């Protein structure tokens, strides 16, 4: 499967009171990967919400990815995204199987991405490219580094951190396959606007194949 397109990531605070409506609006506009990202320790709620997203993603034929939690991903039979301190990629691969989508945070370090590739990652994520209200303290990455990464890596490259419709084009031009977005997608006033943004992100990626 070709991993290219919009990678929508949920945020429990931003989506409070409109969680499923906004996620469905994004799926309606076209989402390649949907990440369930909830940093709380409320396991019961996390399972409930992840199950709802699983149903929704199945209807829209979108791949669900769980942030941080390989056990929850295994329970649902979906993919996982792991940061540098979220546990070994090799264990997640062993748990989830050869076909599962497993993503790895690599900040701005191509060496981390090469290591992740060796350990079985399906895609690598670089960021943060712009100021992010969702994760302001994430280490910064540059477009020059992205261009270098594109030359050296043969895996799909995901970019993250403050990505919006206004600033995404250079990232695509320098080799990004997946645009991972929270606020630039879900920080909208209506479901219609979420759907419009999702379509527009996909158009950006299509026009540069
Ligand atoms: C697609 C994608 N890229 C990077 C991250 C960040 O992962 P991590 O560094 O583990 O930070 P948290 O998201 O867990 O706070 C991500 N979640 N998704
Ligand atoms: C979860 C996350 N990880 C980042 C990284 O750089 O690793 S930036 C980020 C937040 C992405 O949200 P927004 O699109 O609202 O900036
Ligand atoms: Mg993490």
TrEMBL record:
Pfam families: TMP-TENI. Its cofactor is Mg(2+). It is an enzyme of class 2 (transferase). One of its GO terms (cellular component) is cytoplasm. CDD domains: TMP_TenI. 4-amino-2-methyl-5-(diphosphooxymethyl)pyrimidine binds at residues 35-39, 67, 105, 135. Keywords: Magnesium, Metal-binding, Thiamine biosynthesis, Transferase. Pathway: Cofactor biosynthesis; thiamine diphosphate biosynthesis; thiamine phosphate from 4-amino-2-methyl-5-diphosphomethylpyrimidine and 4-methyl-5-(2-phosphoethyl)-thiazole: step 1/1. One of its GO terms (biological process) is thiamine diphosphate biosynthetic process. Belongs to the thiamine-phosphate synthase family. Condenses 4-methyl-5-(beta-hydroxyethyl)thiazole monophosphate (THZ-P) and 2-methyl-4-amino-5-hydroxymethyl pyrimidine pyrophosphate (HMP-PP) to form thiamine monophosphate (TMP). This is Thiamine-phosphate synthase. It comes from Pseudomonas cedrina. The gene is thiE.
């Amino acid at each position: 499967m070709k991993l290219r397109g919009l990678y929508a990531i949920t945020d429990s605070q931003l989506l409070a009171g409109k969680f499923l409506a906004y996620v469905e609006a994004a799926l309606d506009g076209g989402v390649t990967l949907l990440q369930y990202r909830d940093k709380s320790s409320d396991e019961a709620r996390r399972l409930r919400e992840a199950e709802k997203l699983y149903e929704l993603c199945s209807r829209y034929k979108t791949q669900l990815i769980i942030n941080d939690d390989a056990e929850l991903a295994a329970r649902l039979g979906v993919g996982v995204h792991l940061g540098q301190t979220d546990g070994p990629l090799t264990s997640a691969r062993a748990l989830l199987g050869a076909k599962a989508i497993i993503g790895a945070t690599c900040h701005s370090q191509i060496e981390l991405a090469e290591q992740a590739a060796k350990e079985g990652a399906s895609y690598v994520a670089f960021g943060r490219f712009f100021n992010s209200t969702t994760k302001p303290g994430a280490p910064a990455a540059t477009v020059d580094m992205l261009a270098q990464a594109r030359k050296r890596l043969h895996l799909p490259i995901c970019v993250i951190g403050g990505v919006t419709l206004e600033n995404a084009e250079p990232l695509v031009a320098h080799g990004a396959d997946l645009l991972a977005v929270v606020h630039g997608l879900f920080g909208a006033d209506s479901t219609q606007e979420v759907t419009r943004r999702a379509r527009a992100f996909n158009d950006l990626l299509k026009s540069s194949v």
